[in-house]
C-alpha cells in the first residue's frame, strides 16, 4: 500500500513539474491603444410600412423643444407602499434592509 501511494505521489509531482516548466508560447506582446479602434456605424433605415409624416404635426422637429425637468415624473423613495398585509411576521428579528 505504501509503495502504491509513493508511486502515485511521485507520478503526480512529475506531472505538476512538467506543466509548470512547459514552454510558454512566443507571441509578440502588443500594446493596446484605444485610439486605434475603428467604430463602424451602419445607418439602418427602419421601414414601418406606412408614411409617418401623415401622423405628425406640420414642421415637426423632435430635437427643437426644450425639456423641462419639472415634466419628468419620478418615484419618491420615501413613499410608503401598502401591500395589504403586515410584513413584520415574515421577516427575521432586527431585520434592516438598509444594512449592507
Task: Walk me through the structure.
There is one protein chain. The protein has 100 residues and is an all-alpha fold. It has one domain. 19% of the residues lie in helices and 0% in strands. The chain is built from 1 helix and no strands. It is flat, with a radius of gyration of 34 Å. The chain starts with a helix and ends in an 80-residue tail after the last helix. 0% of the residues are buried. The model has no long low-confidence stretch (mean pLDDT 79). Residues 1-22 form the signal peptide.
Q: What's the helical proportion of residues? A: 10-25%
Low-confidence stretches: none
The beta-strand count equals: 0
User: Largest sheet at a glance?
Assistant: none
What is the domain tally?
Answer: 1
What is the average per-residue confidence, as pLDDT, rounded to a whole number? 79
Structural class: mainly alpha
- Could you spell the SSE succession in H and E letters? H
Keywords: Signal
Using brief descriptors, characterize the structure shown.
single chain, 100 residues, mainly alpha, flat, signal
SSE blueprint and pairings:
Blueprint: H1 2-20
What's the quick description here?
Keywords: Signal. This protein has 100 residues and is mainly α.
Amino acid at each position: 500500500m505504501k509503495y502504491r501511494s509513493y508511486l502515485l505521489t511521485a507520478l503526480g509531482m512529475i506531472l505538476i513539474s512538467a506543466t509548470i516548466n512547459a514552454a510558454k508560447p512566443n507571441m509578440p506582446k502588443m500594446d493596446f491603444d484605444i485610439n486605434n479602434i475603428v467604430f463602424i456605424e451602419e445607418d439602418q433605415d427602419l421601414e414601418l410600412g406606412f408614411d409617418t409624416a401623415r401622423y405628425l404635426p406640420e414642421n415637426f422637429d423632435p430635437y427643437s423643444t426644450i425639456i423641462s425637468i419639472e415634466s419628468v415624473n419620478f418615484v419618491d423613495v420615501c413613499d410608503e407602499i401598502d401591500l395589504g398585509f403586515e410584513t413584520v411576521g415574515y421577516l427575521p428579528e432586527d431585520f434592516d434592509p438598509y444594512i449592507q
